[in-house]
């Protein structure tokens, strides 16, 4: 496992800052703060799978959501106390017990009670210029479903994760690596199913995997895997997994893998002699997440914005690998560096493949196709770093692969 | 009504660029492109409200979503054709007929078949540093629900809106004004209900209103209203509403208002002598929506980022009014200007009000409270403009009101 060291005294927690995902326990085993309490009637569903009238909901015809409404109305709740913290906790209504179904999140626990599945509609504001979900949307939905997995477990405390055993040992989760493969991007309005589950990673680590599928065709759009380690909150060093923690989380582990990876190759470190460099990137207040840290999705945005727009218009990301090195403070100024792999420029024979016949260059140009077949590399190496006085501080290394867009949703305005 | 003129030949459509909302018809009356077709079995629900077995879904206990799954599996769909446009349309599955229930979107048509209601869970990536939904999330959800209202109507064509009568008259919708009031921001994980409907605005305009409510307490978090006009796509001038268009859309109009507005006062125009100025704002590829225009939410982000972070940390927006003037091209460089209303600095007596007793300044400072009670103005005027060689081109004027955060969700990391 990659050894990850962070100097003591850095302001923010590595785990929470490195990636939006770190806002929750990826183990499905978040801590319960005993100070928090659930409102009078939780909508928990018995693990036996038996029907529970309090939470069961019929969505039939126009009667639809009224069942839910009625169930919600049964929860005693003081209207006058909405600015109070306990009232806020009641509004959040985080379950204290494991649930098998959440009708609001459209989530279910499947496969023997460890794997989570959620149905999601791609929203109008989650798509890019070509009407398909953006990579940012994909990453956001991975975060959301992982967190909802923990939510369903009945063990979610305040959203920052860590089991009781981890808390007793002053341990937190840190994400060290993430690999997302996108075969196809879902379209605006499309209904997808997202599965997520966890497994062991070596002796001391944990893996969280995801699959995003079309609900209609069952075609797999996206596969993703991530690796997590435990860090001591005080020493800022990686830690072994204590036995009591292993006992807590291992019942959730399954072997299934979303991504079959070959021997992992470390991503080369770039310097600022690279072809594309964006400097002076500064996080805004609106880029911060609930941990007051720059969100992981912002990192990826900074990475990808360093590639010229002309390339982005005609290509879609098919793979991204992220290797997290250290936290950056929200007051840091970040540099995004990107180097194309010149050997990854595709050969010329795919115009014929696409159209079935060869087209004269002037025709291609006239119909706007030429841009599509520009000689762009399709593999890039990335680095986000903080420029230091003596030494630059790496935040995350990345590697992306791209393919040309073969099909563009027409712009009918 | 405000007279809105846009020079002929500008590249993008005003309506589509001005606001993310403009990606759809706000009338609930989008056009149907006859070239598009629905897949074999649409999940439409009869308007009578009767149960339709194809689309009805039981979400009871662990059986939950399998009903939906089974329904989806009945739709014949060629797996091999996923890169084909018609296949993409099938995947989107836009209904051809009016629906009263959409189980995936958790939406229902209520109040005599004209008002739309959707249940939404606030997601982990939609919240800000204080664990509540951001204003951007609110605006995104207004867009999403308005669009889903049209989606449910069975009249949505390609998402860019306009009734058949409007298309015959070469008319498109433009949003001229928007007013959003937020009493309280929903919390991460909170379940909210969003209602939206349309009404007449003067002789030739349309109004779209929204209400966002807590599903648990029924407390209204947010009220919003917007005004729309019709513009001739060729002349770029505002148009009267043709009779045939009135006949199409007026059956959807209701009188109910989400916001009771007094006589509307035009927002003052700022110049760049204002207190806060951010120049050289450039849209990135990732800021563009499906119309290849800068999304309205990006506008609001640019507006609010001009206010210092120190203010943003301790205040929440309670009202925003936006007056749209003209489009900006995605290649334009934008300037964001902001002027505080110095008369809106609150009096000092609310520390006592909050705590019940007076606190010494050093105590307030030590506990971080002092920043909360800084002497910041609570009203701001905004302008986004494109700097022109001869004349600056206004994009949107804005006015915001803020209140101090009375309750902060603790950061427990």
From TrEMBL, chains A, B:
GO terms for molecular function: acyl carrier activity; fatty acyl-[ACP] hydrolase activity. The keyword Nucleotide-binding does not apply. InterPro entries: Acyl-ACP_TE_C, Acyl-ACP_thioesterase_NHD, FATA/B, HotDog_dom_sf. Its EC number is 3.1.2.-. Its main location: plastid. Residues 274-343 form the Acyl-ACP thioesterase-like C-terminal domain. It is an enzyme of class 3 (hydrolase). GO terms for cellular component: chloroplast. It is found in: Plastid, Chloroplast. Residues 114-249 form the Acyl-ACP thioesterase N-terminal hotdog domain. Keywords: Chloroplast, Fatty acid biosynthesis, Fatty acid metabolism, Hydrolase, Lipid biosynthesis, Lipid metabolism, Plastid, Signal, Transit peptide. Gene3D superfamilies: Hotdog Thioesterase. Residues 1-30 form the signal peptide. Belongs to the acyl-ACP thioesterase family. Plays an essential role in chain termination during de novo fatty acid synthesis. This is Acyl-[acyl-carrier-protein] hydrolase. It comes from Zingiber officinale. The lineage of its organism: Eukaryota, Viridiplantae, Streptophyta, Embryophyta, Tracheophyta.
């Amino acid at each position: 496992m990659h050894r990850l060291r962070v100097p003591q005294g850095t302001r923010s927690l590595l785990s929470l800052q490195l990636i939006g995902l770190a806002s929750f326990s990826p183990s499905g085993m978040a801590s319960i703060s005993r100070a928090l309490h659930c409102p009078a009637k939780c909508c928990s569903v018995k693990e036996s799978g038996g029907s529970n009238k309090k939470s069961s909901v019929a969505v039939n015809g126009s009667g639809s959501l009224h069942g839910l409404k009625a169930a919600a109305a049964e929860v005693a709740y003081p209207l006058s106390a909405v600015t109070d913290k306990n009232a806020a906790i009641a509004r959040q209504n985080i379950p204290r017990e494991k649930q098998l179904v959440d009708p609001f999140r459209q989530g279910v626990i499947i496969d023997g009670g460890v794997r989570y599945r959620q149905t999601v509609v791609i929203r109008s504001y989650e798509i890019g210029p070509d009407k398909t979900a953006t990579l940012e949307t994909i990453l956001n939905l991975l975060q959301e479903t992982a967190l909802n997995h923990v939510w369903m477990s009945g063990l979610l405390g305040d959203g920052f994760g860590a089991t009781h055993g981890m808390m007793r040992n002053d341990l937190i989760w840190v994400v060290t690596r993430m690999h997302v493969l996108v075969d196809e991007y879902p379209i605006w309005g499309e209904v997808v199913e997202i599965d997520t589950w966890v497994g062991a990673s070596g002796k001391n680590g944990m893996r969280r995997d995801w699959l995003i599928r079309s609900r209609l065709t069952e075609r797999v759009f996206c596969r993703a895997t991530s690796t997590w380690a435990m860090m001591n909150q005080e020493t800022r060093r990686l830690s072994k997994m204590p036995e009591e923690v292993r006992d807590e989380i291992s019942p959730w582990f399954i072997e299934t893998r979303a991504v079959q990876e070959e021997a992992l190759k470390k991503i080369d470190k770039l310097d600022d002699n690279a072809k594309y460099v964006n400097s002076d990137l500064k996080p805004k207040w609106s880029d911060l997440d609930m941990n007051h840290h720059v969100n992981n999705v912002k990192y990826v945005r900074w990475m990808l914005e360093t590639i010229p727009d002309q390339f982005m218009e005609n290509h879609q990301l098919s793979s991204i690998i992220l290797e997290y090195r250290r936290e950056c403070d929200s007051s840091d100024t970040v540099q995004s560096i990107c180097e194309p792999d010149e050997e990854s420029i595709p050969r010329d024979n795919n115009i014929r493949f696409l159209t079935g016949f060869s087209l004269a260059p002037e025709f291609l140009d006239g119909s706007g196709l030429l841009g599509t077949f520009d000689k762009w590399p399709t593999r890039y190496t990335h680095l986000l770093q903080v420029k230091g006085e003596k030494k630059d501080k790496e935040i995350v290394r990345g590697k992306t692969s791209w393919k040309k867009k073969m099909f563009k949703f027409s712009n009918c305005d």
